[in-house]
């Protein structure tokens, strides 16, 4: 059985090699939901602590559930604070997604919290899952630390700085928050509008310029395939709750009609 940290390097290498990976958000605070998503074929799952219904306990249990299928767990933290990032990494998260950043300096500061000294300022401890309870300390000393850094682009300020954010060492993925960005652009929920599509093109171009991956959240598989054709390589399809709700709604409607 493999757990998150052991899979982080493989995921980072796949993205660095130009591969496309597909995952999903897990927000129901259910280890079983995380396991089902992993078993269904996700390349990664993302436990959402910003909008999801659970707290750090969801990370503790979700990493084990997904890891039993060799699937790494990314965690969207509530903020880029050092304590928030460090705690979920110690629980075995393979990577961190940071929301609501505006500037290059904020992105660089968040990445610093993901890495051990001398590259960063992550707290050094061994009695946690990321070090296999003190039995594997390699990650403490390896110069190429394997935490996947995902920075969200969902504000006008972040969009204006996207090229510089993508250039930062330790930023592996620049990830569009489509709803927040659509509101920021003045076209709420209008994801087919020209201004929104132009913003997506800018994000993809910035990622390609710096050999990073562009990421985005899609509603369904067809939407994800469209984003992949546009150049996105780290694509989430919905979430555990939205996929379940949609499937049940459609099944109920079909049965009643």
List keywords for this structure.
eight-stranded parallel β-barrel; 257 residues; globular; TIM Barrel; alpha/beta; 16% strand; disordered N terminus
Notes on the protein architecture:
With 257 residues, this protein is an alpha/beta fold. It has a single domain, classed as TIM Barrel (Alpha-Beta Barrel), CATH 3.20.20.60. Helices cover 46% and strands 16% of the residues. The protein has twelve helices and eight strands. An eight-stranded parallel β-barrel has the order 1-2-3-4-5-6-7-8, surrounded by eight helices. β7, α11 and β8 form a beta-alpha-beta unit. α2 packs parallel to α3 (56-67). The protein is globular and about 60 Å long. The chain starts with a helix and ends with a helix. Residues 1-6 have low confidence and may be disordered.
Question: What is the CATH architecture annotation?
Answer: Alpha-Beta Barrel
Share of residues in helices: 40-55%
- The tally of domains stands at 1
How large is the share of residues in beta strands? 15-25%
Biggest β-sheet: strands ordered side by side in the sheet: 1-2-3-4-5-6-7-8
Structural class from helices and strands? alpha/beta
> Count of DSSP E strands?
8
The number of helical segments is 12
**CATH class bucket:** Alpha Beta
Low-confidence stretches: 1-6
CATH H level: which superfamily? Phosphoenolpyruvate-binding domains
Q: Taking all residues together, what is the mean pLDDT?
A: 93
The end-to-end distance, rounded to whole angstroms, is 45 Å
């Amino acid at each position: 059985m493999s757990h998150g940290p052991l899979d982080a390097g493989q995921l980072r290498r796949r993205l660095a090699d130009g591969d496309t990976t597909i995952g999903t958000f897990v927000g129901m605070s259910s280890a079983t939901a995380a396991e089902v998503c992993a078993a269904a074929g996700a390349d990664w799952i993302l436990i959402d602590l910003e909008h999801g219904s659970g707290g750090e306990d969801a990370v503790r249990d979700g990493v084990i559930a997904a890891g039993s299928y060799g699937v790494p767990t990314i965690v969207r933290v509530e903020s880029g604070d050092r304590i928030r990032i460090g705690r979920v990494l110690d629980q075995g998260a393979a990577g961190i997604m940071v929301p609501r950043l505006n500037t290059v300096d904020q992105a660089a500061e968040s990445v610093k919290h993901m890495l051990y000294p001398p590259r960063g300022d992550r707290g050094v401890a061994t009695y946690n899952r990321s070090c296999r309870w003190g039995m594997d300390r390699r990650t403490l000393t390896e110069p190429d630390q394997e935490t996947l850094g995902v920075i969200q682009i969902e504000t006008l300020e972040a969009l204006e700085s996207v090229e510089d954010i993508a250039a930062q060492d330790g930023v592996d993925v620049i990830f569009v928050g489509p709803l927040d960005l659509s509101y920021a652009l003045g076209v709420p929920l209008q994801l087919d509008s020209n201004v929104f599509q132009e913003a997506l093109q800018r994000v993809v171009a910035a990622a390609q310029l710096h050999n990073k991956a562009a990421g985005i959240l899609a509603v369904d598989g067809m939407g994800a395939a469209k984003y992949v054709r546009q150049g996105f390589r780290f694509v989430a399809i919905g979430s555990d709750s939205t996929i379940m709700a949609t499937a049940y709604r459609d099944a109920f409607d079909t049965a009643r009609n």
